[in-house]
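Bumping with the actual sequence this time:
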Amino acid sequence: MAEKIITLTTLTYMRAQLLSSMLQQNGIPCFLTHINEIKEAPGGVNVMIDEENLEAAIKIFEDFKKNYGHEKEKALGYLKSVRRILVPVDFTVQSENAAYYALFIAEKLKANIKLVNAYLDPMGPPQTYLESYTYQINLEKVIREIEDEAYKNLDAMRKRLRKRVEEKGLKKITIGLDLFKGNAVNVILQEIEDYKPGLVIIGTRGSELEGLRSFGSVTAHLIQKSHVPVLAIPKSYDATNFTAPRNVLYATNFDTNDFNALNRLVNFVKPFNAKIYCLHAAFEEEGEFDETRIRRIKSYLFQLIDAYHIECGILETIDIQQGIEDFIDEHHIDVLAMTTRKRNFITRLFQPGMTKKFLFQTNIPLLVFQSLP
């Protein structure tokens, strides 16, 4: 049975934003409508939810009303996290490339950047350990020296990024750094909890391998485990010649989780005045897709951004990967976005061996949102 979307309440824009953040933090998908009408009808922003979440949502809403001052501070902290970007680096070409990309995104989103490095990763490749230390016995001394070397490299990268800010005439961007000993995935996930970024930007190995392994183990695990969006930048994408995204493709299944992802996606693309293509790719034998869902999501998107910046449709194809890749080429897509949604759709896209022409040979960044539980 298809989900039924209902209005939980109607509030001023700010209160609706705060309540929306509280609902999402508690695992309840929601979205706002009538956003563009607030000038004509103050207090007219609707908070929409799935009917099956009504009971839990009402409890949160009641607490929100009783403790508005406390909840406001909590929610504002959540909203401010959007202006923090975490950039994991391992001093490879692809990680520095991702850091350059993060600079331009940070300027447009008015965000701060934090570089984080995990050294002595027990799961990392042999080159993680400095070659000159391979056969030394004094491990404690070696670790201290490796830590010092990692900090020097991290600080040097920050200086290169600051120089790039000056060269490109970008507005001032705060660039912090931190490093930790241990497994890279665990370090990054813990830093997400502590730093509370709104976005993680990480470099990948591009299309050197087939399937999900093409992202590299760290990025693949982050996509699966992170509760904040992950923007993966392929190695072959030249971020030093950054071009603002003008066309963004969101691969959709037209379910409730899409509303949350699209809300965040709109906030990402608005500073670039980019167009969103909302596309459902289906096998030809699956038959006609429910047109009511596509109309509903189009209606919602029209509330968020101007109609001429949106195009929704269904792509019938015998090969999902090939169909999306052809669409990317034909419409000059700059960023591909999608939601994990319980791994079904994303897993189908990245199964090794489905096609020799791997999707990310298109060499564009991939923005992944995580579905709410």
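The tokens above came from a reply further down the thread. The radius of gyration is 22 Å.
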